[in-house]
């Protein structure tokens, strides 16, 4: 499969047609380059708040405004996935249904229709201040490309979440992100690369870019798109399959043979995926020895 990760800049729109034209152009560009799976960033849907004018200036009205456009945005992404025969992880957005407070939700679309959604699990300090809540549990998405899981931004920094996905059979972890500065970007990137190492799988970081104009309530954001694997058999020595430049918008693409993931787990020079449980055995042994 060819995976396309977006370093996507938030834009300010004056009409729905402008937004639809922009998203269609991005999807068409990736599809024309042969991409099978397209990953948009965390909170990239917040640019929809610009359709409501001053609503984009303050966080509470911006969240509500974005959520109000989500059904139409989902219809658009569904239609594009069918039209171009691709899988699309749409940019995450605040979703209030069925909760009174928003969750941070990414939705996945395939050539044959919607495949479901993944809510963020662990809120950052900023999201806690925004009163954004954790949503539904982790999901696994079976697709013809691979078995996919989604860890939204901060989630990918927590190894137990990644382990739960790979134990459920996930081969590719999608990590859409929104990070204000380089330190936040690197935290997510290190987390994504660590999950690829531990799970002997592929991880995809798709960062949002913002100069604070499209949705001032969200502030600025930066990062670099990347696709990572374990630095082992069948993968680059660095573990980096593809990497964009910091703050540079556009698609970053990598060809990922699905069988390479199964092979590195079975024949790699290290077997992190297989020997994970030995950690608990060693820790239990150390605790017993200390007690004695």
Jot down its keywords.
single chain, 292 residues, alpha/beta, Nitrilase/N-carbamoyl-D-aminoacid amidohydrolase, 14-stranded mixed beta sheet
Walkthrough of the structure:
The protein is of the alpha/beta class and 292 residues long. The chain has helices spanning 16-32, 59-68, 70-84, 125-130, 159-167, 182-199, 258-267, 272-275, 278-291; strands at 2-9, 37-39, 87-89, 93-95, 103-110, 113-119, 141-142, 147-150, 172-177, 202-211, 220-221, 226-228, 240-243, 250-255. Strands 1, 2, 3, 4, 5, 6, 7, 8, 9, 10, 11, 12, 13 and 14 form a 14-stranded mixed β-sheet that branches. Helix 1 packs parallel to helix 3. The longest helix is centred in the middle third of the chain and has 18 residues, at 182-199.
Second rung of CATH, namely the architecture: 4-Layer Sandwich
Which fold name corresponds to the CATH topology?
Nitrilase/N-carbamoyl-D-aminoacid amidohydrolase
Q: For the residues shown, what is the average pLDDT?
A: 96
Instruction: List the secondary-structure elements in sequence, H or E.
Output: EHEHHEEEEHEEHEHEEEEEHHH
- Compute the number of strand runs: 14
CATH superfamily: Carbon-nitrogen hydrolase
- Sheet with most strands: 14 strands, mixed
């Amino acid at each position: 499969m060819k995976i396309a990760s977006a370093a996507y800049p938030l834009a300010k729109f004056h009409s729905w047609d402008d937004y639809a034209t922009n998203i269609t152009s991005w999807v068409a560009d990736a599809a024309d380059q042969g991409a099978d799976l397209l990953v948009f960033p965390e909170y990239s849907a917040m640019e929809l708040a610009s359709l409501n004018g001053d609503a984009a200036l303050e966080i509470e009205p911006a969240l509500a405004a974005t959520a109000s456009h989500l059904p139409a945005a989902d219809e658009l992404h569904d239609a594009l996935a069918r039209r171009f025969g691709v899988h699309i992880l749409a940019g995450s957005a605040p979703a209030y249904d069925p909760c009174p407070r928003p969750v941070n939700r990414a939705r996945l679309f395939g050539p044959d229709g919607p495949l479901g959604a993944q809510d963020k699990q662990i809120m950052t300090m900023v999201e806690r201040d925004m009163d954004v809540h954790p949503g539904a549990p982790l999901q696994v998405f079976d697709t013809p490309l691979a078995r996919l899981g989604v860890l939204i931004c901060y989630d990918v920094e927590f190894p137990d979440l990644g382990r739960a996905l790979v134990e459920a059979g996930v081969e590719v972890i999608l990590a859409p992100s929104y990070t204000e500065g380089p330190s936040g970007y690197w935290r997510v990137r290190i987390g994504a690369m660590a999950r690829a190492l531990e799970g002997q799988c592929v991880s995809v970081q798709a960062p949002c870019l913002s100069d604070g104009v499209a949705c001032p309530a969200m502030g600025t954001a930066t990062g670099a798109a990347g696709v990572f694997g374990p630095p082992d058999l069948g993968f680059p020595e660095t573990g980096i399959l593809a990497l964009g430049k910091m703050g540079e918008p556009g698609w970053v693409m990598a060809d990922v043979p699905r069988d390479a993931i199964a092979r590195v787990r079975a024949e790699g020079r290290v077997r992190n995926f297989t020997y994970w449980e030995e950690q608990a055995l060693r820790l239990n042994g150390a605790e017993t020895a200390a007690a004695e």
